[in-house]
Structures are given as C-alpha cells and as structure tokens.
C-alpha cells in the first residue's frame, strides 16, 4: 500500500554532501517513493549563508534557523550534514526531542558523543543512522552492524580517509608535492572544513573509533585511538618503501587481542607490500579488510569521499529510516555489551622500518645491532649506504625488524638517539600487511 502523505525531511547543511543529497532526492523522487512506500519531501534546508546561490534548491526552503525547522512539528527525518561538534550535536538532540529520526555523516561527532546520541535515539524510540560517516559510499557500517552480527570480528584494517590517500597516491605516483596534492583534494571536496583533521589523522581516528565500537561491541572513544598523521611522510620515505617493494598508506588498524580480553585501535602511516590489495587503492578511494571468525577475510572497496558518493550512503540510510518509520519500528541501535579495555600502543606488535643517519666508521653497525638486541627487537634486514646529500663520514642505515612490541621499539629508538655515532633518526615507519 502506497502512503500518499509524504515523509518530510529537514536537510541540515547543504555543502559538498548536502547539495548532492538534495539533488538526488529531487532527481530520483519517483524511485525513492516506490522503494520507501511513501513520497519523501524536502521540507526545509538549513544553511549558514542564505544568500548563496544553490542550484536546484527552491529558495523558499532555505533557512538559517535549523532549530525552528526541527521544532515546526511536521518533520519526520533530519539529515545532518553540517559537520563538527556544535551546532550539530544540539540539533541532533533537538531532533530526537521532537520525534525526528536522524541520518548523519558526522564522524567527528559520532566518535566523540556516539554513546550519548545513541542513548537519546533509543530513549525516544527513534533511529540514528550514519553509514556515510565511515568510508564515504562504501557499505561498511550496515554490513558490520547487521550482516556480520552473528559472527565474531577479530581484525579490521583499511584506508578510511580519502584525502590522505589522494595525497599519498599523488606523491608516490607523480612526485607531486604535499601542498599541491592537498590543494587538489580540497578543491575536489574530499577534505574536511579544516584539512588538519585529514592530514593529522583525526578524521581516520574518528572513523576507527566508530568501526572499533561496531566490530568489537564495545565503546572505543576517540582518545583511545593511537593516532599519527601523514604530514611527515617524505619523498625519501617513498624511495625507501620502493626499495623494499612497498608503498606507504595511512592505515586504520583495529585488533582484538589473541586472548580476546582487550582491543587495540590505531591510525598511522605504514609501509605495505606492493602485492597487498591496499597498495593499489588509488586517489580518494578507500578499502577496508574485515577479518571475522566464521566469514574469513572480507574486503570493502569504493569511493571514500566526495559529494555524490557520500550522498549515496546518506540516501541509503534515508530509505532505511523512512521504511522503519512506516513500519513503526527502529533499526539496530548501539551494541556495546562487552566492555573490553583498549590497550595502549606499546602493546601493539608489528614490524618496523627505521632509517638512521650514522657515523660511517668501524663498529657502528655492531653498536646499533646491540642496541636492538638489548631491547629484545630482532633485526630482519640492514642496509647501509652513503648519504645521498654527500655528507662526508656519514651513512644512512636502514633497519627492518621482525615483529616486536611497539614499546620495545620506542625503547630502542630512545637508546639509539643517545649513541654518539647516531647523528639522527630520519624516520620510523611500521610495516604492515605481510
Ligand atoms: P561543507 O563544509 O561542504 O558543508 C557544510 C554545510 O553546513 C554548508 O552548507 C554550511 O552552510 C552548513 N552549515 C555550517 N554551519 C551551519 C549552521 N550553524 N547552521 C546551519 N548550517 C550550517 O561540508 P561537507 O558537505 O563536506 O561535509 C558535511 C559532513 O559530511 C561532515 O560531517 C563531513 O565530515 C561529512 N562527510 C563529508 C565527506 C566529503 O567527502 N565531503 C565524506 C563523508 C562524510 P553554507 O553552505 O551556507 O556555508
Ligand atoms: N575528509 C574525509 C576524507 C571525507 O577525506 O576521507 C570522507 O569522510
């Protein structure tokens, strides 16, 4: 039975993502009606700058008063694509207080306040959907929350930030400079309002916190996620990676400990072998491996940023939430019934690529090797070469280790820095995916 009274949607934000949501809602109105079982109507669009020309949007729908839009009494679903913490958090809370279900793309807010927002949705018997918050267009949140709800996820590893993947890919494949590649990613609408969130790894860390919570049915806060950005990755690192048959990606890695009693969550640049599927993820694409006990290894791949791909995920949530409204039901809420502690980065066990500037004289290699051994870090390979800048009596020493705890590696590096013969630690990079 088709309902003729439309479901009314408030669009909060009409920028890169919101404008595409509005466009698809208009151009696909008939299909959306058929799929939902009722027409959906764009009832209002809240923005900051009302005079901005917005193609395809009826100017009478534009308002700067998002709160009044939510309080007017006829809105069924709010789509929050403003971003940031405030006013998004207050608006979502207001929506729940007025019986309005919410679709959001806001990973920063969900990572910080997801628990409280889920509780508010549940208290009011409403939906909070956020597929677009992680990995753009890629269906990932719903498969993990629903399709894998009967399995046990042990590990998630992937590229979850389009901007940084775009920059690293350009640096690697075209030799582009960091700033030039970032400017291009920003112009294409991939970057956050403040791109520091992308390049310093905060955006990926927010997504990692959300995914870890879903994967391990526990609460993982943004502060629990170890985070390193990619601003220090240099052309020399790419050259080193190439010599090892690797490239460099900013990875999010979430792991359940072998004893099942704790988890780790981290975001940092890492070398991965060129033969690894993540190595061929180009431009602003994302890809995420999920390892589940019964299912084995699953890979999710697709556009990770940009207006239209992200709008696709938002619209998918809108259809689901509207269907739930018509069925007078709600979808799955937060599942955080385990309370697994998040272990510190020092407990993570992985491999390392360390590049040292050392004095080029007898005994240096032995001294360096001894320092690794004293900290229980086993060396896999060592390569020494004269410094490319031709500095006399100095060499560059590249050490690749076997798997070791991160705390042991930190201790090693601290001790190496104290050696007279070590002029500097040029770079430390983890090696993953082998
Ligand atoms: P934009 O900066 O392009 O758009 C933000 C929109 O919010 C603008 O329309 C702006 O109005 C409006 N806005 C800002 N402040 C207010 C306010 N106080 N009241 C009402 N409206 C306001 O951001 P994006 O579209 O890129 O991102 C939106 C969300 O989607 C963020 O949470 C982001 O993290 C997420 N996201 C973005 C992706 C992307 O590729 N861009 C991908 C996945 C998720 P005005 O137009 O007048 O300036
Ligand atoms: N700035 C984000 C990115 C948008 O580049 O991945 C998608 O979440």
Would you kindly provide a brief summary of this structure?
With 434 residues, the chain is α/β, with parallel strands linked by helices. It has helices at 16-27, 29-36, 66-71, 88-97, 107-123, 141-147, 162-173, 178-187, 196-199, 202-216, 235-243, 307-326, 364-374, 406-418; strands spanning 7-12, 40-46, 62-63, 77-80, 101-104, 128-129, 153-159, 226-227, 246-256, 263-273, 285-292, 296-303, 349-359, 379-386, 394-401, 404-405, 422-431.
Layout of helices and strands, plus pairs?
Layout: E1 7-12, H1 16-27, H2 29-36, E2 40-46, E3 62-63, H3 66-71, E4 77-80, H4 88-97, E5 101-104, H5 107-123, E6 128-129, H6 141-147, E7 153-159, H7 162-173, H8 178-187, H9 196-199, H10 202-216, E8 226-227, H11 235-243, E9 246-256, E10 263-273, E11 285-292, E12 296-303, H12 307-326, E13 349-359, H13 364-374, E14 379-386, E15 394-401, E16 404-405, H14 406-418, E17 422-431
Helix pairs in contact: 1-12, 4-5, 5-10, 7-8, 13-14
The chain binds NADPH dihydro-nicotinamide-adenine-dinucleotide phosphate (NDP) and L-homoserine (HSE).
NADPH dihydro-nicotinamide-adenine-dinucleotide phosphate binds next to helix 1.
The radius of gyration is 24 Å
Tally the helices.
Answer: 14
> Residue ranges: pLDDT <50 for 5 or more in a row?
none
What is the name of the CATH superfamily of the largest domain?
Answer: Dihydrodipicolinate Reductase, domain 2
CATH architecture of the largest domain: 2-Layer Sandwich
Q: Briefly, what CATH class of the largest domain? A: Alpha Beta
């Amino acid at each position: 039975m088709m309902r003729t009274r439309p479901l009314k949607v408030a669009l909060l934000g009409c920028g890169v993502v919101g404008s595409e949501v509005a466009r698809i809602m208009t151009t696909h109105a008939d299909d959306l009606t058929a799929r939902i079982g009722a027409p959906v109507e764009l009832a209002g669009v809240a923005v900051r700058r009302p005079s901005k020309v917005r193609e395809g949007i009826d100017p009478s729908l534009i308002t700067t008063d998002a709160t009044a839009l939510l309080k007017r009494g006829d809105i069924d679903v709010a789509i929050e694509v403003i971003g940031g913490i405030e006013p998004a958090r207050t608006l979502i809370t207001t929506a729940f207080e007025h019986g309005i279900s919410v679709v959001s793309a806001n990973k920063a807010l969900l990572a910080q306040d997801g628990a409280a927002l889920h509780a508010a949705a549940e208290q009011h018997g409403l939906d909070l959907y956020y597929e677009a918050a992680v990995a753009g267009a890629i269906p990932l949140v719903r498969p993990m929350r629903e399709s894998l709800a009967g399995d046990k996820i042990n590990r998630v590893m992937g590229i979850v930030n389009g901007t940084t993947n775009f920059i690293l890919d350009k640096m690697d494949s075209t030799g582009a400079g960091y700033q030039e590649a970032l400017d291009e990613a920003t112009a294409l609408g991939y970057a956050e309002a403040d791109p520091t969130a992308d390049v310093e790894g905060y955006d990926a860390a927010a997504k990692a916190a959300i995914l870890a919570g879903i994967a391990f049915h526990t609460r993982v806060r943004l502060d629990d996620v170890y985070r390193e950005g990619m601003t220090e990755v240099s052309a020399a690192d790419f050259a080193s990676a190439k010599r090892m048959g690797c490239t460099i990606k900013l990875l999010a890695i979430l792991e359940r400990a072998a004893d099942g009693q704790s988890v780790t969550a981290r975001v940092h640049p890492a070398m991965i072998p060129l033969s690894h599927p993540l190595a061929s993820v180009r431009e602003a694409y994302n890809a995420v491996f999920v390892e589940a006990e019964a299912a084995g290894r699953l890979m999710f791949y697709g556009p990770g940023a940009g207006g239209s791909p992200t709008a696709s995920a938002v619209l998918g949530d809108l259809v689901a939430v509207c269907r739930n409204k018509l069925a007078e039901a709600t979808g799955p809420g937060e599942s955080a019934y385990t309370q697994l502690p998040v272990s510190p980065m020092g407990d993570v066990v992985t491999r390392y690529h360390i590049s040292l500037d050392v004095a080029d004289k007898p005994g240096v290699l032995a001294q360096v090797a001894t320092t690794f051994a004293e900290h229980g870090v086993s060396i896999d390979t060592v390569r020494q070469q004269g410094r490319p800048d031709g500095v006399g009596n100095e060499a560059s020493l590249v050490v690749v280790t076997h798997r070791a705890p991160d705390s042991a590696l930190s201790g090693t590096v601290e001790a190496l820095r104290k050696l007279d013969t070590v002029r500097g630690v040029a770079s430390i990079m983890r090696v993953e995916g082998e």
